[in-house]
Amino acid sequence: MNAIDKLIAGYHRFRSGYFLQHRQQFETLANQGQSPAVAVVGCCDSRVDPAIITDSPPGEMFVIRNVANLVPPCEGEGTWHGTSAALEFAVRGLKVQHIVVLGHARCGGIRALMTGENGTGERDRFISKWMEIAHRARETALSPTLELDFEQRLRLCEQEGVRTSLDNLLTFPWIRKRVESGQLALHGWYFDVATGELQALDGQSGRFQPL
Question: What predicted TM-score, i.e. pTM, was given to this entire model?
């Protein structure tokens, strides 16, 4: 069975199992639309699915996925702003009450950033430009004052990338306004693929703590 056949077989299991068991919920979602309270900015890494990690049913989360779960700063240059557009819809359209930036261990995008393997040539021109968002995180992780091995620096950069994205969220006026008014809360989470542990950035200590 090839990869596509596996997906089709999975669809048939979903249609005859989960869908039938939750048919009323799907009909409600179809007729009334979506009204999630939470938006998640996650990585497009196939191993890190926000819905699976949080055991969430359809309609619970508005999920935005990109390379390395990054949020760009608010700016008007360029033409295409997929992540920014999705955030605008989540905040101004759906009026979500929470935004979670979900980073994770063993992130390929962060490793490429740290090693310089994200490239400058034609093959990687989109990735390399995108990963510039996390340049500050890389500088922090590579600081010569830190006594860390390379794997520890990678983990630090992954977590610093979450901090950078949280900072960048506040550069959007309509996000900052809702945060300051108490209508919106921002959260930084970090998932370890190998152990299954989920950590949250603690506002007081400034450290990621297990949930």
Answer: 0.94
